[in-house]
Write a structure and sequence with these properties.
With 269 residues, the protein is mainly alpha-helical. It has helices spanning 8-39, 49-57, 62-86, 95-122, 132-142, 147-170, 172-180, 185-219, 228-239, 241-263.
């Protein structure tokens, strides 16, 4: 074990990262599981992150559970910001490194909004994940002089994120990082399989969100945009329930991947 691994401060930050990544995994488990149940006619409902939060608070001891989710996601936001400004992944300050670090930053901001939605539910001001907030934001942007191009830029960011997710799924770097963790063969196989399926499904969903967002820019109609739930609706309408179910199971697999990653002490963050 390297001396740096014994640093108490570093160990504390890694624990925060594990808590955050594991909590993010739980959210994806709920998104994928609930959507798959509906797609295969087993109940459930198509949902995004806000719907997953609503599901949590509706359970017995739901408020306590949702506070735990808030705590965990706060840890994830902290870790993403720490990655951004401390460059823990050693991406550097060239254009490629800056792009990676901006990705960490945008991920942190995204989950900060999810925390905000969770807090709204906890204080009784949430709408239960109807997705209206994003539509309202797009509508306000479209009302601006150059709003159409701003919305198109947002769509481009989503598209880039979708491509990155697919690239991660099939890149050698993803598999190599799992191998370097020192886990046993079964654990490595589970990590690679669930990660590959999960990143692919996530990339497809984000790609649909990009399409819906650019459609809103072209038509000047914010109702054409949408989040994860709207992407699921689009997939079901265009390709059928079976395809939706497969992609939803992929999102569930991504949740399992994140939880497993968080539990592996040998995994390098």
């Amino acid at each position: 074990m390297e001396k740096s691994d014994l640093n108490p401060s570093k160990q504390k930050k890694k624990k925060i990262a594990r808590l955050g990544i594991g909590t993010k995994g739980v959210v994806y488990l709920l998104i994928g599981g609930l959507t798959a149940w509906e797609a295969f006619g087993r109940g459930g409902k198509k949902t995004g992150s806000n719907g997953a939060l609503k599901f949590v608070i509706d359970q017995p001891f739901g408020q306590i559970l949702l506070w735990l989710v808030v705590l965990g996601l706060a840890g994830y936001v902290f870790w993403r910001m720490y990655q951004t400004f401390k460059d823990t992944e050693e991406k550097g300050n060239d254009s490629k490194g800056i792009m990676y670090r901006l990705g960490y930053f945008s991920s942190g901001i995204f989950y900060l909004f999810i925390i905000f939605n969770a807090l709204q539910l906890l204080i009784g001001g949430g709408s239960g994940g109807n997705g209206g907030g994003k539509e309202s934001m797009i509508q306000q942007l479209l009302a601006q002089e150059y709003g159409r191009w701003i919305v198109a830029s947002i769509a481009l960011i989503f598209l880039i994120r979708a491509i990155i997710q697919i690239f991660i799924a099939f890149s050698g770097k993803f598999k190599d990082k799992v191998k370097e963790s020192g886990m046993n063969d079964k654990a490595q196989q589970l990590m690679v399989s669930s990660g590959r399926v999960g990143y692919t499904s996530r990339g497809m969903v984000v790609g649909v969100i990009a399409y819906l967002t650019v459609k809103a820019a072209i038509t000047y109609d914010a109702s054409k945009s949408g989040g994860t739930k709207d992407a699921f609706n689009f997939i079901q309408d265009e390709f059928g329930g079976v395809v939706l179910g497969v992609i939803a199971l992929g999102m569930l697999a991504f949740g399992l991947f994140l939880i497993f990653k968080a539990s592996q002490h040998k995994m390098d963050f």
